[in-house]
Design goal:
Elements lengths: L1 H18 L2 E13 L3 E10 L3 E14 L2 E3 L4 E6 L5 E9 L4 E10 L13 E11 L14 E6 L5
Antiparallel strand pairs: 1-2, 1-9, 2-6, 3-4, 3-5, 3-7, 7-8
Length: about 160
């Protein structure tokens, strides 16, 4: 009887595992400054296994006084285990002081990529900091990896 219970528990565990899995997703942003105060912002992502998602860029962007600049795009993307990739990058001329407010949201991939219907949010990474007037080189603050365990949706 004990082996029958063990087999039932194993079967139940495997059926739950087939429905959804957990993937570790890490996100970070690399900032660089080129001549003439051109700031480049690159968002990087990495996972511990293959992961498909729909991403949306949001946030206020780069705000300096009354000036704002941003490139709030979206799209589908696939990451492969252990390989860091840059799904989004943006550059702008910036004269500090300023604020950086950039967010990448990772959502379930929609069944129809042309659909405007919202999809469930899986994880988001916020990249925010103040840029002081005296800054000549960005700190590594936003380049620190943020890692989150994400429960992926069950295969359809």
């Amino acid at each position: 009887m004990t082996s029958l219970r063990l087999a039932a528990c194993l079967l139940l565990t495997l059926s739950f595992a087939a429905r959804s899995q957990t993937v570790q997703v890490c996100g970070w942003m690399v900032e660089s400054v080129r001549p003439d105060n051109f700031y480049q912002f690159d968002v990087w992502l990495q996972t511990d296994r293959e992961f498909s998602f729909f991403y949306k860029m949001s946030g206020a962007g780069v705000v300096a006084g009354k000036n704002k600049s941003h490139s709030p795009g979206s799209g589908t993307y696939v990451l492969y285990a252990g390989k860091a990739e840059r799904p989004w990058g943006f550059g702008t001329t910036l004269y500090p002081p300023a604020k950086i407010d950039i967010t990448i949201e990772l959502h379930e991939t929609p069944a129809d990529i042309f659909s405007e219907a919202p999809t469930p949010l899986l994880v988001k990474f916020d990249f925010r900091r103040d840029v002081p007037e005296s800054e000549t080189k960005p700190p590594a603050t936003l380049a620190k990896k943020q890692c989150v365990a994400v429960k992926t949706p069950a295969p359809k």
